[in-house]
């Protein structure tokens, strides 16, 4: 595979199919970054370090070390010896000194890819059994006795490079890790544009771009979870980069807690791009002999624009991250009762929905919030995971059986990390809620968060969920998390270790999800956090789908799904048909458009199906058939972004091609009609140029090259919010 070292042992080359990453050693001790870009076989890039290794250079370096440190392209920069840019590593020793100087010690090339204990990580194999290779570079600060392992893994079928870092205390004193990022990348600024993903509740992951300018641009979360507001994603692009051309360097974090993602443009027009656990509120105590490993950062380089970057992330996550056995399976069409009933339901109502749903071809009923304790609104009962017998006479097991008898699978909602002040659990264990002694904790949605840094709390929370799952035949769980963390601290961690809280919380969540996967391997898990606040690669490791947003309005969803699909596969995006008018924005749209947009993800409904008109029911039947017809293609195909409503304010369009390019599905949404316009050219991508494709339902046949270069002509449709699915199939070859 692609990892090599030159014969002098001072240059490291990591080659994926289309990219090369080079590092080199200066003055026999500093590991520097040389190059990340198009694939090359030549690795002799020492000159790119811009240092003079002769006597004059070495003398200069002694006399003016600070000038060297302040502009050298460090592979893993540390704090305290003259590099004034933001470091990847800051360590404090027992004396309170924060100086650390990492020097190169050695390397090892290993076949395979290590797992990270207690954390999600990309893995070798997947269904295709693809192989991996890992380069470990050892750095050391001899005075501190600190050893740092930089890990770079590649897979033979991917252009991504996976990075993580382990710090090992081989000294005799305690060390305090104040900051330890997973990846840092120093390079020349090439008039880069920076793309990030931002939002809020109900409008997650909007693509935002700006020109990189002097100073720092920081994106992060200090909410204890990934957040609605910011994604752990950065992409630097050269000027004029489009979906199909231009250079892109991107990072994404396999983690579900506090993160920082940063670019810093320095005084010499160099750029440092970095990502990892947010240092605010973080401090990890490293006793002699102990080690700390960071979560993984996925790095992707594309010389063919954002589209290629997207497809690299998609296939990496599909082949090497998502563990669920459902990954490559068609997911059941579900109906969720949340927006149909909110808290106002009982078994009879749910059964009436299930029976009607069955007639229309829906395959699973999901019972959302409100089935437990005395929860008739959001003011109580989180933590009391026992059934409300007034609502479900006979309990969950009986309801699950009845739903199964009606011919549907059965799913259930939990919010296992939470505790309501008005709950039996809180009355029994008030100290299990995250809080500071003597200070009234801040509520969010009337609830507190459980202290998952405590093993007995993790065990209890896990058992509450598992007990229900063991007692009834349950096919699916929606795991929600409806508020961020605040008033952070634990009664049991102790003052010295309080800086470990946020990370230990995330490890608690991961432990619960891991146990769930192990004990219930046939369970389909969908993660959720007030919509999409925990849509991240960490959660994708455990659940093959994540609820994308509480906003199901198809027009709002265009922007949300465009941003989500920039990084995450369509197979992971929870998408449902909502009621009309939409509950979040009040917009009225046709069922056809709601369905066509939802068909881009895992498909389902979130409305009271018993209240639909006969005409709407017939439409629902039709869309369910469409789902069965197209979902293999949507789930497994290659995704191309054709046009963006966010950019043009008029229409949106995306495309999915089967891997063999025999079949293509295009979704076109005309947001606004405009009078007196010619038909619109839709230039498709990734087709076989010399194949002829027939548009389903017509006699129209076009060559691949015509569709890609000249485009398909889409007529304007009468009205706003109109949409169309265009399904092309290869019929003959031109030669
Ligand atoms: C969150 C979820 C919703 C629903 C409610 C229930 O907001 O995103 O889908 O489950 O919680 O309280």
Which class best fits the helix and strand makeup? Answer: alpha+beta
Q: How many individual β-strands?
A: 38
Per DSSP, the total helix count is: 15
> How would you state the average pLDDT, rounded?
97
Main beta-sheet strand count, sense and barrel state: 10 strands, antiparallel
CA radius of gyration is 27 Å
* Helix fraction by DSSP (H/I, runs of at least 4): 10-25%
Which small-molecule species are bound to the chains here? alpha-D-galactopyranose
Tertiary shape? globular
Protein topology:
Layout: E1 3-5, E2 11-15, E3 19-26, E4 30-38, H1 55-63, H2 65-71, E5 89-92, E6 103-111, E7 132-141, E8 146-155, E9 160-169, E10 175-188, E11 193-198, E12 206-211, E13 215-221, E14 233-237, E15 248-254, E16 259-265, E17 270-277, E18 284-286, E19 291-293, E20 296-302, H3 305-320, E21 334-336, H4 338-341, H5 347-360, E22 364-367, H6 395-405, E23 409-414, E24 418-419, H7 424-428, E25 448-449, H8 455-471, E26 476-479, H9 501-519, E27 524-527, H10 537-542, E28 545-547, H11 554-565, E29 573-578, H12 591-598, E30 602-606, H13 614-636, E31 638-643, H14 645-648, E32 651-657, E33 663-670, E34 680-682, E35 691-695, E36 701-703, H15 704-709, E37 712-714, E38 722-733
Parallel strand pairs: 21-22, 21-30, 22-23, 23-26, 26-27, 27-28, 28-29, 29-30
Antiparallel strand pairs: 1-2, 2-3, 3-4, 5-10, 6-7, 7-8, 8-9, 9-19, 9-20, 10-17, 10-18, 11-12, 11-14, 13-16, 14-15, 15-20, 16-17, 24-25, 31-32, 32-33, 33-38, 34-37, 35-36, 35-38
Helix pairs in contact: 1-2, 8-9, 11-12, 12-13
